[in-house]
Each structure stands twice: as C-alpha cells, then as structure tokens.
Fold this protein.
Amino acid sequence: MRVEPAAAVVGHVVVPGDKSISHRAVLLGALGEGETRVRGFGRSGDTQATIDAVRALGVEVDDLAEDELVVHGVGLRGLRPGRVDCGNAGTLMRLLAGVCAGQEGEFVLAGDRSLSARPMERVAAPLRRMGAEVETTDGHAPLVVRGTGSLRGIETEPEVASSQVKSAILLAGLNADGPTTVVERIPTRDHTELLLEAAGVRLRRRGASVTVEPAGALRLETVVVPGDFSSAAPLLVAAALIPGSDLTVHDLGVNPRRTGLLDVLERMGARVSVFERRRVGGEPVATVRVQAGELVATTVGADEVPRLVDELPLVALLASHARGETRVEGAGELRLKESDRIEAVADGLRAVGARIRTQPDGWLVAGVPARLRGGRIDACGDHRIAMLGAVAGLASREGVALEGAETAAISFPGFYELLESVTRR
Ligand code: S3P
C-alpha cells in the first residue's frame, strides 16, 4: 500500500470499541448466568477469535450486528472441554488459560506463528500454583490446561507488569477455594477488575494489589464498550505531528491506565484537551481533541510504560519529529509482543530517514523538527507497526510504501478508510 504525504489531519471521528474490553466482555459473558448483551463491540481479527473460542467451548453467541452481540452464558464452570485456535490474540490465550484452569477437563489452546513465539510460562506458573495442570510447549503455545475443579486461592506478585497475567490469575480465582491476590509493582490496565465488579464480584483493591473472592455467579446483562484508545492513538499522533492538524475523537475510553500517550503528547508540546468526561459501565469515557504543536524531546521510563505500552511505537515516531533526544527505557516487554517491536520500529523508522538507536529495553531517538524523507516500511506481520507506517507516510515528504498493511485488521479493520477520511492533501 502507498501512503502519500498529508497537508493536515482535520475532523471528528469515532473509533471501534476497545479490544481489551471486547475480549473480556465475551469471556465474562460466557461464564455468566443468562444473557450478556455487548454493545459497541470492537470487531476485529483478535476479538473474532474470542467469539470463535467460546463457541468452540459450547457457548452460543448471537451476532446482532457488526458491533452488537448476545452471549449466552454457561455459568462459571460450564465450559465444554475442547481445542481452541487463539489466532494472533495474546490476550485471548492468556485470559482463557486462567478461565480453563477453573473448569473440569482438558483444554488445548493453540495460536498462529507469532503467538506461538510469545512467552506463556508467565501465566502457566501461577496457575500451576493454584492447582491446575498446565503444560506449555517449551514455555510457549500450544498450551494444555487441565482444570481440576478445585483451585487454591494464592497471593502472587508477577515479575512482569502485565494485565494479561493479572487477569488470568483473577479469572482463575473466581473458581478457587479462597481469596486470590495479585500484587502489582507497576499498575496495569484494570478492565478485568472493572468488568468483574460490574458483574457483581467482590473485589478488594488496595494500592497496588487486588483481591478477588470466589464467586457464586456472574451477572453482566449489558456491557457498553467505549472507543479503543489504542485505535485512536495513530490518528491522534498524526494530528500532533502534522502542522495545522486538529482532530477530535468522540466517545473514547480514557481509563487513566491507558492514556499515558496523552501525557507524553502534552509534554512534547502538542495541544491536548479532554472534555465531556463521563463513566460508561464503570469505564471513564470522554471526547479528546489534539492539535499539532512544535514538538520537543521527552523521556519515558518503566513506571509509565504500562500506561502506553501499545502506543510506544508511535512515541518513537513523535520523537523523530521532536527537537532533541528522546529516551524510552524500561520497555523490554516490547520485544515480546506480536513482533519484536523494539527492532521492528527501529528498522521501519530508519528506513524512512529517522535517527533511532535500539537499547535492550527501548530506544534513543535523535529528533529533527521536520518531515522525514519517506521510503518503505515492513509491518513485520504486526498490526501496530502497520498503523505506525501509515502515520509515518502521512507525516513524510515523499510518502511510504507499506508492506503488509492488511495486518492492521487484527485490531482495527477500518483503519485506513478512517484515516483517509480526515486526511487533507
Ligand atoms: C492487554 C494488555 C497488554 C497489551 C495488550 C492487551 C490486555 O499486554 O499490550 O495489547 O488486554 O490485557 P500486557 O498486559 O501483557 O503487557
């Protein structure tokens, strides 16, 4: 795909429903009593894998519309053993491992090549401590989870800051014999906690720890999914980068554990306003407006990383256009995402003229407040790199040839059309 330079990005948009919350709504709906209606569902390659997964385990899901579903819950221990293809979706595989640990019978969780290269011991080890039998394939998928129907509650402090790991443990804890506590050194996204509370589960949240009590039943009724901050991020970054841009995103999820990018944009000199703040089903939602500004370098450290983990590739692009040297550190987890994002971002941005050096856990970016030349970017089979490449093309002098653009559909099928609709040439 060719992406030609833009004169500006201007307009008002809404983006599809949040991917993290969409996965969780289907999984918790499947474990619920009766029907859960999901409105604003963010349908994508990843979330379709979650619908297909629960169907494979005996759950009926009615597709009412592209963005609306009804999930017919089978109860907390009602899943039918079987084999699931998780596709590219790490969130699905890790959360489902926690769910299956509390069922009876054997569940096999497989994934595509990229997912099969990602670490799974981080969920397997705590689930084993809870009493489930979990086999990995050399630490990776396929996973075999044999639930015993009698899990123990544990207290644990995962080594990595990961919402997926925390969520897997909490979901297993629903079917344990006592309280289960996860202590986090650095807080990660809390969509699982918010949705469990909405489903009537008692949670205790104290500082950096969360405890779930064994649950009798989940009752969700309706989940309204806000717009996905991570899907809006490439558009917001395009607006921050290209002089004269002014973009507003409506009905956007602004959970503070997801919006680290807004803080970085402000620090770097873009104009950011957040207004019409409200809560929808426990999740903060707002309108977000970003206007371009003269960008300056910044530093992003480990404590901030979970709040913008999926947006860090875009921070590297911003940094390439900012005056001074930007340092991103404490982000070693990026090497374990859908691709090695530290290398994929550096290769992609270098190929269009940026000056970026990799570190084991981040990048050093020497920015220049001018457009990059342009060139060819390979998405490396990674949806976030594909979207990064498109924004790099708009902000460049000569445009970008984007290899593997179609992989954006893993999280955001209509991305290029929406971006084009606000692009002025
Ligand atoms: C996600 C958590 C993050 C994020 C991923 C989605 C989630 O992963 O990178 O895209 O829905 O819980 P980790 O929490 O494992 O870092």
Remarks:
- The chain is about 30% helix and 30% strand.
- The chain has a mean pLDDT of 97.
- The longest helix spans residues 19-31.
- Residues 20, 91, 162-164, 167, 188-189, 309-310, 333 surround shikimate-3-phosphate (CB under 6 Å).
